[in-house]
Amino acid sequence: MAFAKSGEPFFYFWFRRDLRLHDNRGLAAALNSGAKVRPVFVLDETILSQLKNPEDRRVQFIYQQLVELKTELVDLGSDLWVEFGRPEVVWNRWLIQDGSLGIYCNEDYEPSARERDQKIAELCRSLGQKYEAFKDQVVFAKDEIQTDLGKPYTVYTPYKKKWLKQLSPDDLRSAESEKWVENFLPAKTPSKFLSFSEIGFKASSFDFPDVAVSTKRISSYARTRDFPALTEGTSHLGIHLRFGTVSARELAREGQKHSEVWLSELIWREFFMQVLWHHPRVERQSFRTEFESVAWRKNARELERWQMGETGYPMVDAGMRELNTTGFMHNRVRMVVASFLTKHLLHHWYEGERYFASRLLDYDLAANNGNWQWAAGTGCDAAPYFRIFNPTAQAARFDPQHEYIRKWVPEFNTARYTQPMVVHEEARARALAAFAEVKKKESGN
Which residues are registered as beta bridge partners of 130? Predict the structure, then answer.
């Protein structure tokens, strides 16, 4: 993309996981830098080329948000410049534009994003330009919540206590970036916007959760969150948090006012982010490395039956079919299906984590990885491997009328429904024995 000459110095603001003009810390800093701001977004060819589904709804969500963001900026007399390509290639070209002073953006904490940002920061420095990133997608990041000994937490409950103790009104104060929109770089005519097909994807009709409606559900979250038949029982804000169409600070304020339980879920999200920040190896490896030597089973047909929702356990099957159809799965059910794969079938958690990564609309590496390792018993926990969900008991407790199950497994309680793949008691005993063997070797007995 060739930019028209600006005629004055400017900073780029690089939108990433923060697709909004309001309460955006990096954007606020850019707009108050003393120079004009050119807002840009890079459709990362490296990431998009790895997606196998041409109708990937997450890409569609991003595209829709970019269209809305561009419309807002054009109405303000500016524009959103979007390019498809590899970030380092795009920035090599953008940073030599007349008037470029460098980049403002918000931090990203995933390992591949950190590697990307380091390259771009080094490129800026080599050109004598500025690169500055801000904390925005979390309330506390990196080393901000530590033990009294100055070490990162590896157990959630003490982390949560310190998080709440350290929290101040300033931590949740809005950045009010929307107040300085007059400092965007003017654009006489809007730039060409790539069509969905030009980036290699096909649009499909799908209604994404409305952020305003979802936020209103926070007040009833504690009462309704465990019952998957209640379609409005959870907030469905995950996709908005993932792509930053809503501010984490705003949601934390809502949690303070309306639901401590919901606020705790936000804290879990930040806990897993700081675990990934300090231990990037957990992306592919168990946090507790000794459990890599569990006698994990590899059975392609078993994995496929789990993926397709054909295990013979109704809640597991309902959850997987919901995921495959909608890109969403209820939180309670996520724990049940993850426990089933890792404990009943004794498959490595990474197989399940990768399948969720390919399907979840709200896929977030840190949260998905952390929750899968929690379910598998390989992550941050005090006594994890004893925790094995009984999928039948979970269904009886949280879907007693089988409303959720019947919605997704219409053949339930008929002769057409498949027999259970494994017997719960036998599978549970097998898992406990496999984990106990690792503990025995670890202790030297």
Answer: 102
Give burial (CB, 10 Å; 0-12/13-18/19+) of 432: middle
Phi-psi region at 289: left, alpha or beta (left = phi > 0; alpha = psi -120 to 50): alpha
Whether 205 has a pLDDT exceeding 80, the answer reads: no
Nearest to 347 by CA among 304, 381, 308, 289: 304
| Contact by Cβ (8 Å): 337, 289 | no
High-pLDDT (> 70) share of the chain, %: 97
Separation of alpha carbons 238 and 103, rounded Å: 28
**Domain boundaries 138-174+211-278, corresponding CATH code:** 1.25.40.80
Q: Are 336 and 390 in contact (CB under 8 A)?
A: no
| Domain 281-440, CATH among 2.60.40.1180, 1.10.579.10, 1.10.10.10, 1.50.10.10 | 1.10.579.10
Confidence of residue 387 (pLDDT cuts 50, 70, 90): confident
Domain map of the chain by residue range? 1-136, 138-174+211-278, 281-440
Q: How far apart are CA 2 and CA 62, in angstroms?
A: 23
266: its two tokens: 């936000």
CATH code assigned to 1-136: 3.40.50.620
At residue 83, what are phi and psi to the nearest 5 degrees? -135, 145
Tokens of 170: 């300033």
Q: Of 134, 136, 139, 185, which Cα lies nearest the Cα of 31?
A: 185
H-run or E-run covering 184: none
pTM above 0.90, yes or no: yes
Which residues lie closer than 8 Å to 192 by C-beta, 6 or more apart? none
117 and 26 in contact (C-beta within 8 Å)?
A: no
* Residue 395, phi then psi, degrees to nearest 5: -65, -40
In this predicted structure, the answer to whether residue 304 has a pLDDT above a threshold of 70 is yes
Band of pLDDT at residue 2, cut at 50, 70 and 90: low
- Listed as own residue / partner, the contacts of 229-233 with beta carbons closer than 8 Å and 24 or more positions apart are 229/399, 229/401, 229/403, 229/404, 229/407, 233/330
Rounded to an integer, what distance in angstroms lies between the CA atom of residue 291 and that of residue 435? 7
Q: pLDDT at position 245, please?
A: 95
Closest listed residue to residue 55, CA positions, set 239, 251, 204: 204
pLDDT band at 49 (very low <50, low <70, confident <90, very high): confident
Segment (H or E) for 1: none
Residues marked active site are found at: 265, 268, 296, 331, 349, 372
